[in-house]
Amino acid sequence: MSQRLIAAMIAAPLVLALLLVAAFLPLDYVTYSPGYTVDVLAESDGAEIIQVDGHKTYRDDGELRMTTVLVSLPKDEGECAGGCKNLYELMATWAGNDDAVYPYDAVYSDDETPESNNREGAVSMVTSQDAAIAVALRELGYETKPAVEVSFVESDMPAEGKLLVRDILLKVNGEPLRDAQQLVDAVRSTESGDAVELTVRRGRTTTDVSVVPRQVDGVQYIGITPGNGFLFPFDVRVNIDPDIGGPSAGLMFSLAIYDTLTPGSLTGGRVVAGTGEIAASGQVGAIGGIQQKIAGARDDGAQLFLVPSDNCDEALGADNGDMRLVKATTMHVALEAIQDWVADPDADLPSCEDAA
Description:
The chain has 10 helices and 20 strands. By secondary structure, the chain is α+β, with helices and mostly antiparallel strands. It folds into 2 domains: 29-139 and 235-355, Ribosomal Protein S5, domain 2; 145-231, PDZ domain (Pdz3 Domain, Roll). A 6-stranded mixed sheet has the order 6-1-5-16-19-20. Strands 7, 8, 9, 10, 11 and 14 form a 6-stranded antiparallel sheet that branches. Strands 2-3 form a two-stranded antiparallel ribbon. Helix 4 (114-139) runs parallel beside helix 6. The longest helix is centred in the middle third of the chain and has 26 residues, at 114-139. The protein is flat, with a radius of gyration of 25 Å. The chain starts with a helix and ends with a helix. The mean pLDDT is 87.
């Protein structure tokens, strides 16, 4: 038997073993794929997504579609738990025209877990919706006042069952509440066994709530995340799937609220999609996964796509088909661009090409 044949016989099992390891060994990369889109002017489970109480609404045709991206999960206490991909999965994703692969630490922090990711997404979604409502109402000439609200209620903590997400916190221990830090300080300075007295506005009703904090690692907690909310002249809610987290639908929520509160179809009966985090000032901020969101909107028949200006360079690398890409710096700019496009589909609109 020749030495070459002997070497081949020895090497073959090693190569096979390496291939098997590559097939199952998780690698520190994250995959992005196009997600589904949601027409926020439509219904969800038999109820309107944009819900208004105290103001006339107009339900016309056309679609305003928020977009999503499917991202592989973060690790759970160092374990992959479905959040890591092997070599073959990564190669298959990389080969897809609309998919992307990123290093794990470019997407997630070392201490991020599925639980913390979900909580952060839930808080961001609440904050985003409230900013979207405030921006839309101010565009219509209404006054909004900043307030402290409940953005998240932790399960199995004292506030569960007593406070609800989007409760507006008006007072703590009889004192008008100025900011979230005042609430934190009041809770932490409460003597063990004593209650924190809160005055809460829920919808159009104001009530008093007593919560006895619990000590966790020597610190008093009631189990909520306070956030920046607003006092609105009438009630507006966004009835969206709670599994959708993050702030990136803010721009589309704001446009949909504006459309719902004004007569006629903002989109002229057409399909407009987009993305972008909305600030209370109306500025549109950058988001992740822009190319995958463009692909999802393209596949769902959108004719116009609103792109945050800071995402324009990356957006130009996406396959947008016949869908126009419009640079959206603010909600007002996006609103005017849609109105101009409805009046003339060939109108000169703010363009990502111009930004490049």
